[in-house]
Amino acid sequence: MPVTLAKGDQAPDFQLSDQDGNVHNLADYEGQTVVLYFYPRDDTPGCTKQACSFRDDMDEITAEGAVVLGVSTDSAESHQQFRDKYELNFPLLVDTDAEVATRYGAWGEKVLYGRKSIGMTRATFVIGPDGVLTKVWKRAKAAEHGKAVLKALRTA
């Protein structure tokens, strides 16, 4: 049975390393708003648009008191290359076994060009300073996502 998280649910804790080997725990961000977004693969067209939308809106997102954390099953080395190529200004977390993605319901069946497969979905969770979900996107629109998150942060 797939996990389905919704606004008002307690966000599952996690502990993942980023592209530089730094460990991130949700508890480390207590008192801050966290934008935790899951994406399928580094340096692919949609994922690049999504990451760059966050990069481009980062000053405004930070001004709203939020931090952005990207998560995929790619390796730390892949994340480093992706970050450097596009000058990304937020951590990319390594979830190689999709354990955290599964707990958030961001790992499961998806359809691409009419073909069903199992993998990472483009899901985003805004976690309030108290660890409670304030906004959930089950399927995000890559290119516009930074602006959509910013709007949600401003109306929270």
Summarize, please.
The protein has 156 residues and is α+β, with helices and mostly antiparallel strands. It contains 5 helices and 9 strands, in the order βββααβαβαββββα.
**Fraction of residues in helix:** 25-40%
Rg over CA atoms, rounded to whole Å, is 14 Å
Q: What would you call the structural class?
A: alpha+beta
Average predicted confidence as pLDDT? 93
Catalogue the unreliable spans. Answer: none
Shape: globular
Secondary-structure element string: EEEHHEHEHEEEEH
% residues in beta strands: 25-35%
**Count of alpha and pi helical runs:** 5
Widest sheet: strand ordering: 2-1-5-4-3-8-9
Report the major sheet: 7 strands, mixed
- Measured distance between first and last alpha carbons: 30 Å
Can you give a write-up of this model?
The chain has 156 residues and is α+β, with helices and mostly antiparallel strands. It has 5 helices and 9 strands. The protein has a 7-stranded mixed sheet. Strands 6-7 form a two-stranded antiparallel sheet. A hairpin with a 2-residue loop joins strand 6 (107-112) and strand 7 (115-120). The longest helix has 12 residues, at 45-56. The mean pLDDT is 93.
Structural topology:
Elements (H helix, E strand, L loop, with lengths): L14 E4 L4 E3 L7 E6 L6 H12 L1 H6 L2 E7 L3 H11 L5 E3 L4 H5 L3 E6 L2 E6 L3 E4 L5 E5 L7 H11 L1
Parallel strand pairs: 3-4, 4-5
Antiparallel strand pairs: 1-2, 1-5, 3-8, 6-7, 8-9
